[in-house]
Please model this.
Amino acid sequence: MRLILLGPPGAGKGTQAKMLKEKFQIPQISTGDILRQAVKDNTELGVRAKTFMDVGQLVPDDVVIGLIKERIRQRDCKTGFILDGFPRNIAQAEKLSETLADMRVVIDNIIDLEVDEREVIERLTGRSTCLDCGAMFHQISCPPKVLGVCDGCGGKLAQRPDDNRETIRERLKVYLGSTAPLKEFYMKQGNLKTVKAKGSVEDIFFRLCEMIE
Ligand code: ADP
Ligand code: ZN
Model:
């Protein structure tokens, strides 16, 4: 099963991708996670990517396309994968199509998680992530039992540096200008599905699975 999750920042792509990964036993490939790891490791890639991520801009296409090409050719992607956060613009989508054609594989499901802008801003501003296991919490909708501590592993929770109002606004702008047009791109190819991404994480997951099966 090969899947692409589309949707604005804060739509819940990461959360749902993690659940799908467990259910279907296929890797979740998040360009955001890969880049954040590179930033953490202070690699050359990380240093370059950080300047874009901190201000809510897209990291240059050649960088992320290179990452994805290498990643989807790895062994664990043979039976499938979930793309979360890639492609992010038409150029990336075109390169992805080429790569998949080369590999003689197709994407089974392209799903757009639909959520309105106000909700997105609310979700992102209250969000915190476990530095150790990546679990996500929210001040209001899903607070941790102990402030600043992960329920799952006891790790420390932190806000993503790009989850501040100014950067969120820029990420939304970039989404509308560059990423949202992918909906039409894939719709024209006749394989876009839409899932309402409002409600509880479980409800959304249920709707998503119904769409897939
Ligand atoms: P979100 O979807 O919540 O904005 P991500 O974790 O997907 O968060 O991405 C965080 C940042 O990483 C983006 O703002 C961007 O700078 C960079 N990034 C992630 N994926 C891509 C991509 N496919 N192309 C370019 N930049 C990317
Ligand atoms: Zn944790």
Q: What stands out?
A: The first strand starts at residue 2 and ends at 6. Residues 2-116+179-212 form a domain with the Rossmann fold fold (CATH 3.40.50.300). The mean pLDDT is 94.
